[in-house]
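Example A, followed by Example B.
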Amino acid sequence: MSRLLIIIFLLLQVSTALAGGSDRKADPRTMTFQELRFEIPSAERVVLDCGMPVYLLQDRELPIVSVTAMVHVGSIYDPPGLTGLAGLTGSVMRSGGAGGVTPEVMDDELEFMAAAVESGIGSDMGTVSMTSLTKHLGRTLTIFSDVLLKPDFAEKRVDIARKQLVEALRRQNDDPKGIAGREIARAIYGSHPLGAVPTFATAAAITRQGMIDFHRRYFRTDNMLLAVAGDFDRNDMLSRLNELFPKRAAAEPRALPVVPQPPAEFSATVLYGKKDVNQSVIRMGHLGLTKDAPDLHAVRILDYILGGSFTSRLTMEIRTNQGLAYNVDSHFDIGRLYTGTFIAETETKAESTAKTIGLMQKLIADMTREPVTDQELKLAKEYIINSFMFGFTSPSSIVTQRARLEFYGYRPDYLDRYRERIAAVSSADVLAAARRYLKPEAFKLVVIGNSEQFDKPLSSFGTVKELDLTTHKEPGR
């Protein structure tokens, strides 16, 4: 169901209510509507001859086909001393040409067909995606498969990508928000791969051969799955995919590196980075939870009430009532494979830095002391349940959601029972989740700004460790 159809449906519901037989003006406080029902569209799961799962969803509305490959790879697998290798490999897979086609020719051909092929590698997933007009499906699929399995990593493009990384490192301390985001992740994850950041030394150590070896290890048909949506014939699509991804002789068994969970250590830390600016950047947080937590749905409601909406406690008090910040929020980033984080963030003028930090910590701590109100619980549930359908506004989003469930090992009924489980959460559940997962006394606090202008010294929040923002220098400069 498209977003447009949903909006039209809701407007018709309102029109029906307003036209309900009387000349009196409708009172929005007493208006009632029929329950909006939404069934999650399904996608067909097929296994190719090579053993690779494929999720298919046909949609003839537009002559467009999209395909996404999801690969079990990520920066968590960067070898020691080569932090940044995964990210550069993901970038150059597309930009460096593939299947013997030079980067320039590939760029021109895709532009001529009004098609797109993109690649990238994040922390725990690599993706190669394509969008094509149906009439150019065959050729675009070939380029897609070549980028996925046969990238050429043209030396010139490798060099460009490496120089871009070096330039980003040169500028990494220019943006106070960028510094705060980097340092809060490093503080929370410590020596775990999720906290690692590239340096000039690791960038210099990345080579074309290193990218080839990294790609060869992870980009194989027994380590990925596909999501296909749009205007295609099912049998024709499966025939094309079996041809592009044929069954091959048995290779070495897939063996992903073992990466342990981040250690569940909670201790308070205060980190300060000096920047001569009139606004302080504030980040605070700690380790959170994974998707397998039994009280995940209570955490989703906790998120909304505390800092995940325009009517959240953080926003209403710090922005609306106190006028201390334009934007303030908090969020549990639920870990899919590894423990995620809880982070609260804002920016405020230097003279209100300590006041804002103290208020944020109090509001977060209050969530662990008393149950949320019935009104807060009701609004959170209604928002989460009613906005659920907007995650399925296109065939591509529908089939991708289904494929991600398998990729990350979610329960098969996760999406189908999501709204039901949200509706079942009580205020006692939210309080229990807050007490279990919120630890204000163990926050990693990162502040970037000019301490000479702060209303109170940061030492009032604990022993301060000053960040050396000049340590990441390019060798020889």
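Example B, a separate protein, is given below in the same form.
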Amino acid sequence: MTTTEFNTRLLGMESKLKYFAYSLTSDREEAKDLLQETMLKALSNKNKFTDPRNFNSWAYTIMKNTFINNYRRNTKSNTIFNKTDNHENLPHKQEAISPESEHAHKELQKKVDSLPEEFRVSFQMFTEGFKYKEIAEKLDIPIGTVKSKIFFARQKLMNSLPEYREEYI
């Protein structure tokens, strides 16, 4: 198989791979990252591809293995091993926070707490790790409304904290 044929087949599978990535991650951004990583691995390992009849399964296998490896890597990095008798794994604890960082965090938290409730609840849920869909379900509001409330909360925070704006733009 020539390089052109290989690239054409790989690009032809992009939409199917994107769908598969989304089914694995359930998150659009993570799916895009997984797709990009898979395409890069496939292109960099095209010399290892031998059987043109199994091109699709080869690409799907790369994606599945990449997803599994990333998942394991993320799980390991967020866990420390406890050497006590019960052998439980504990979440990794953060190191000491600098006084400047702690002050900035307290100031930011005050501003978040001062947001009107209609924006604050959605925003806090989002920063705690809830997905848009989960927030919409818990608050029983449309997903578009959730996105709008989070957007407006961010805007209000940026306007009330101009000294931090430079860091995040």
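On Example B: The chain is about 70% helix and 5% strand.
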